[in-house]
């Protein structure tokens, strides 16, 4: 069983990495594939180009057991619809392997507006990263889309290639790529929100604005 974490990753941060790790452990996933999107379907143009964002994901995931960078959305033309990605993954992995599409609560809430939304559960399970104690109540369009598919048993995910929705409790770090970009733009130091290797690459490539004004990451105590 494999996990799929798509995102704009503009840039990737510890919020993404933490949910990937915790869901991998909770569901005993063989791997989590990180899928940076080429052209995000439902949002404005990212601050960094697709290759640069994928390069940051590569640095963040390097050497982490079970974390895999999957570049298939980068080379496709048009918006990076998840439906197309799932069909492409099915061609590579076959019809039987259970897929777990990992979504944050905000992405899950927007699911009814996705391309071919009604067909997604025919290709994958959906695992929602859930902040313990937070409501799992769904707005009517979302409930209509996934109602009756919700399970609390990981065994149900293993038993079929797709079709279930499961909430998994994770440590949700209050980090967003927007906030990281804003810190960089203002010349602030976003260390401890993103891996050092990612920050280093951002600085080297001059991504996201005033990065040259930032202190070096290896600055010692003075
Ligand atoms: N801190 C976080 N904790 C849990 N899930 C997250 C967190 N940040 C993002 N996600 C989830 O990771 C996936 C990819 O998110 P995305 O690349 O858009 O990052 P983001 O931080 O939300 O970006 P932005 O601030 O630019 O909107 C989405 O499913 C999103 O819900
Ligand atoms: O397929 C769609 O219509 C669709 C609409 C919105 C978002 N997505 C996917 O959801 C993931 C998270 O999106 P985002 O905008 O939060 O980075 C990313 O992989 C997107 O490609 C997909």
TrEMBL record:
<dbReference type="InterPro" id="IPR014729">
    <property type="entry name" value="Rossmann-like_a/b/a_fold"/>
</dbReference>
<feature type="domain" description="Cytidyltransferase-like">
    <location>
        <begin position="4"/>
        <end position="182"/>
    </location>
</feature>
<keyword id="KW-0067">ATP-binding</keyword>
<keyword id="KW-0808">Transferase</keyword>
<comment type="pathway">
    <text>Cofactor biosynthesis; NAD(+) biosynthesis; deamido-NAD(+) from nicotinate D-ribonucleotide: step 1/1.</text>
</comment>
<comment type="function">
    <text>Catalyzes the reversible adenylation of nicotinate mononucleotide (NaMN) to nicotinic acid adenine dinucleotide (NaAD).</text>
</comment>
<keyword id="KW-0547">Nucleotide-binding</keyword>
<keyword id="KW-0662">Pyridine nucleotide biosynthesis</keyword>
<dbReference type="InterPro" id="IPR005248">
    <property type="entry name" value="NadD/NMNAT"/>
</dbReference>
<comment type="similarity">
    <text>Belongs to the NadD family.</text>
</comment>
<dbReference type="GO" id="GO:0004515">
    <property type="term" value="F:nicotinate-nucleotide adenylyltransferase activity"/>
</dbReference>
<dbReference type="Pfam" id="PF01467">
    <property type="entry name" value="CTP_transf_like"/>
</dbReference>
<keyword id="KW-0520">NAD</keyword>
<dbReference type="GO" id="GO:0005524">
    <property type="term" value="F:ATP binding"/>
</dbReference>
<keyword id="KW-0548">Nucleotidyltransferase</keyword>
<dbReference type="GO" id="GO:0009435">
    <property type="term" value="P:NAD+ biosynthetic process"/>
</dbReference>
<dbReference type="InterPro" id="IPR004821">
    <property type="entry name" value="Cyt_trans-like"/>
</dbReference>
<protein>
    <recommendedName>
        <fullName>Probable nicotinate-nucleotide adenylyltransferase</fullName>
        <ecNumber>2.7.7.18</ecNumber>
    </recommendedName>
</protein>
